[in-house]
UniProtKB/TrEMBL annotation:
3-phosphoshikimate binds at K27, S28, R32, S172, Q174, D320, K347. The gene is aroA. This is 3-phosphoshikimate 1-carboxyvinyltransferase. It is found in: Cytoplasm. It comes from Dyella lipolytica. Pathway: Metabolic intermediate biosynthesis; chorismate biosynthesis; chorismate from D-erythrose 4-phosphate and phosphoenolpyruvate: step 6/7.
Amino acid sequence: MSGAQRLDWVSRPVSSLQGDVVVPGDKSVSHRSMMLSAIAEGTSHIRGFLEGEDTRATAAVLSQLGVSIEAPSAGERIVHGVGLHGLRGSDKSLDCGNAGTGMRLLTGLLAGQSFDSTLIGDESLSKRPMRRVTDPLAKMGAQIDSQDGLPPLRVRGGRALHGIRYELPVASAQVKSALLLAGLYAEGSTEVIEPHPTRDYTERMLAAFGWPIVFSPGHAKLEGGHRLCATDVVVPADFSSAAFFLVAASIVPGSTLRLPAVGLNPRRTGLLEALQLMGADIHVENRSESGGEAVGDLVVRYAPLHGIELPEALVPDMIDEFPALFIAAAVAKGRTVIRGAAELRVKESDRIATMAAGMRALGVRIEETPDGAIIDGGSIGTGTVESHGDHRIAMSFAAAGLVAEGEVTIRDCANVATSFPGFLELANGCGFALSTTG
Ligand SMILES: O=C(O)C1=C[C@@H](OP(=O)(O)O)[C@@H](O)[C@H](O)C1
Ligand SMILES: C=C(OP(=O)(O)O)C(=O)O
């Protein structure tokens, strides 16, 4: 995967950002659309599929398991579903690349198959905790072997699964989704209760594919023994990718950007609220619905930001947007306090530590806490930061460079292709001064 190849970026200060920025398809929706189409009966047409390494890895795993997938054009997939019991085992390992979502959801899906599978990932994914899915799946009757709860995961087939009622210890859409996917193959009902509601794409998409499911924020319940019927999926633009541009235009004086047709599922838009609390000028135009999801154009104009105490209730709704928020806080007047975000420590990198180290290297005053950070806004200096191969860290520091005192060099940016292929070109198209080195 891209992590093997070293790529550094240099981001330079600019005078303003202008224009329309069309960000690629949503990563969460793309993973799920591929998985459900694969085990549905009939042919599903996916439009807006994210051409990122994470979601392509999921598609590659499913073709390895015998699903025929056509890619007539970029962002388009025609998936010939094999039905709930039509996947075929593979002798080779199934490579999820950098994708926590891919590995955790596929673990749930594969726990109900008749064959054994081995799921592997890249260096970063191989360090991410999997007991959060393997423990509850074991309660459902699955057998998944690993060393110390880390990938590779050996998922044993031929187990009779039974439904459980599970209260998630940590808010996680990935864990919830893994259990619901295993629940398709289980006898009886599978019920998931979350401490805070998380993104509900799995629930909504299961319903769209015709599986009876009851769900409300923080709760989902389904029974095994039904069938999925192929359907067409339109993937909205990814709010998490839009996030870098929301922050960038908010901090560069004189900027105005329009981000058309971005997915606005309320479980994803916490950053919008957080930035508005900080004084950002962002509004939504042309609200509509696409593929059952709320979408709208985001219009963002520069506005002076001030620090806030981030309401903890927003954390799950912006779990991937913290690196971007940290940059907004570094520029804002006064102090920003972030709490209740310990999950950031087990993402593609430890995002609290990685952001704190990078911001300190640029002269920003930041204190790390176990579950967040305290950031005293002011100016951003010049220097070199390590992204630790974490796509969201790399793109966040690219935004920081726009208002830095000089150049910001960002090391190890190849993994941006996991979630946002074409970021560099899109960013430069609206006024970033971002170049590659090496
Ligand atoms: O379900 C999903 O698609 C995702 C859930 C979140 O992870 P957690 O479930 O670990 O919070 C998020 O960080 C990830 O990028 C995508
Ligand atoms: C955490 C992320 O993804 P994943 O868990 O799928 O690797 C992310 O995209 O920020």
